[in-house]
Every structure is written in C-alpha cells, then in structure tokens.
Amino acid sequence: MFRAASRLPTRALLATSTVGAIVLQETPREKLSIYPSPNPDIILVETPSALETQIGVIRRSICQTYSNGHAYVQGWVSRWIGVEHAVERRVKSIVTPQESLTPGLLYVGVATLTGSILARNRRPISRLILPPVFFAVSAKHFLPKTTHNLSDYLGSIEDAHFPAFAEKHEIAKQHSAMTWDRIKEATQETRGHINRGALNIVEKIQEATGLKLRETLGLGEEVKQHVEEKVAEVQEAVEKVAEEAKTSVNQKAEEVKTSVNQKAEEVKEAAKEVVKIVEQDLTREETEKKSEES
C-alpha cells in the first residue's frame, strides 16, 4: 500500500515534465536583431502635491492683488502729477515775470495786518471790511498785473460755474465804477471851487494890501499850468475830431467816386446800346431803300 502511494507522485512528476518539454519544443525561438535595441524614452511626469497646489494658488492671488494695488496707486499718482502740472501752469499764467513777488507779497501782508490793527477796537462791521479793503488796495498797488490776471481767472471760474452770480457781480462792478467816477468828478469840482475861491481871496488881499501874494505862493504858475493842461486837452480833442472828420470825408469821397464810376459805366453801356439801335435802324432803312429801288 505504501509502495503504491510513493509511486504515484513520481509518475505525476514525470508526466508533467514530459508535457512541459513538449510545449517548450513546440514554441519557436525569436530571432535576435544584429543592431542594438534603442533605449526607451523615460518620461518623468511631475505630479505636485496638494500642498504645492495650494501654495501656487495663494502666490498667484497675492501677485494679482499686488499688481492691482500697484496699478491703482500709480493711477492716483499720475492724477496728482497732472494736478501739480495744471496748478503750475495756472500759477505761471497768473504771476507776471515783470513783478517780483518777494517784496510785493510782503507789502500786501503788512498792509492787510495794518487794516486788521486799525479795525481792532472798532465795530464788527469795520473788522470785517477793513482788512479785505486794505488787501485789495495794496495788491492793486504793489502787484497790479498779477492782481488783474487773478481777477480775470476768478471771473472766468465765476462765469463758468455761477453765471447768475457773475451777472450780478458785473452789475455791481459797473455801479461801483459809476459811483467812483462820480466821486472823482465831485472831488475835482470841489477842488476847482476851492482853488477859485482861494484865488479870489488872494486877489482881494493883494488888491487891498498891494502885496504880490500870487507870485509868492506860486498860484500864478499853478493857474498857468492848469490852463496849459486844459488847452492841451482841448487841442487833442480837436485833433481827434479832425482826424475822425478827415477819415469820414475820405470814406465818403471814396464812396462817391465809386458811385460816379459805376454811373459812368452805366451811361457808357446805355450809349453803346443806343448806338447799336441807331445802326440797326440805319441798316434797316438802307435795305428797305434798296429793295424799293430794285
């Protein structure tokens, strides 16, 4: 019994070995190439980790935020530079190179402080009015061209943004100018009356005492100078009127000359037409006579 059991595995092994040998003998061998086989390409695929992916996303968002912030700040810087250039151009257009600002502004400031000092112990209305009045008068005196340019600029802003107020302001300026002219005329008339009264008094004293007060006080020279000024003004006015009359006469003469030339041309054209008509009549009569004779 044990012998039969020991024989069975040996038989099975022999059977399997013979079958494997038969299979190996049946499979043909592959022919080897005489050339060396090429090395296969090695492709490395980078596979980042989840931490690297999150870090990349955060870094890109930070860079985008920084670029947006830099562009925003740069835009505001460019606007500020544009405002600086506009202010510089405006200041250069207002400030006149012929006027020095260093002593002029100092004098204007001193005058404004003087107005505030003078109005210190006065009514509130005087405290409000006197410093601006002193400022305006001193600026007009020490910096006339700059003040004129500044007033023109403020007037343009007023016309552009506040047209109704600008119209009222212009009316007020016209009224103030008229009032100032009237004050000047009244002052000149009063001064003339005072001078004439003083001259009359001096003449009466001179007649009564025999003293040459007019020559001593120099009133004769003043009167003479005043008369010469008036004569010069009248002469200038007469010359101006004469020039205007001369120009108007020349214009009228040119107009008359052109009209006469036009009329002469019209008369010539009419005479030519009459001559043509007469010639036509004569030729017609001659043809009629020839026809009658024939």
TrEMBL record:
GO biological process: cristae formation
Classification via Gene3D superfamilies: Apolipoprotein
Gene Ontology terms: cellular component: MICOS complex; mitochondrial crista junction
UniProt-listed InterPro entries: MIC26/MIC27, Mic26_fungi
Keywords assigned: Membrane, Mitochondrion, Mitochondrion inner membrane
Chief location category: mitochondrion
Disordered: annotated segments: 245-265
Pfam annotation, one family: ApoO
Subunit organization: Component of the mitochondrial contact site and cristae organizing system (MICOS) complex.
Name of this protein: MICOS complex subunit
Compartments, record wording: Mitochondrion inner membrane
General function of this protein: Component of the MICOS complex, a large protein complex of the mitochondrial inner membrane that plays crucial roles in the maintenance of crista junctions, inner membrane architecture, and formation of contact sites to the outer membrane.
